[in-house]
Amino acid sequence: MTHTAVGWHIELEFQEDDQHTRAAAMVRLPDGTEVRTHGHATRHHTDSNQPRVGEEVAGARALNELAMQLLTKAHDEIDEASGRRSHSINV
């Protein structure tokens, strides 16, 4: 049995200033829908300015939210296809 490989490309974009980093994440699914999320990080005034750390924190938060939205979408699709309420999908 052969399976077709499907690839997803996730885009992450960052906006930064001296104190804040904001990440925007987006994935376009094979069915044509797009899921978009945001994450943020704030540098404490006593910490040194390390933009990469802000990007990692904000990016991780955006990706975590993306994962949660994808789980919710899958759960809703299971319910719709089965015509009943299914068990929650856990991370």
Automatic annotation (TrEMBL):
Where does the record place the region Disordered? 30-53
Name the InterPro entries for this protein.
Rv2632c-like, Rv2632c-like_sf
Q: Name one Pfam family in it.
A: Rv2632c-like
Can you tell which superkingdom this protein's organism belongs to? Bacteria
**What's the name of the protein?**
DUF1876 domain-containing protein
Q: Which organism is it from?
A: Streptomyces pseudovenezuelae
Taxonomic classification: Bacteria, Bacillati, Actinomycetota, Actinomycetes, Kitasatosporales
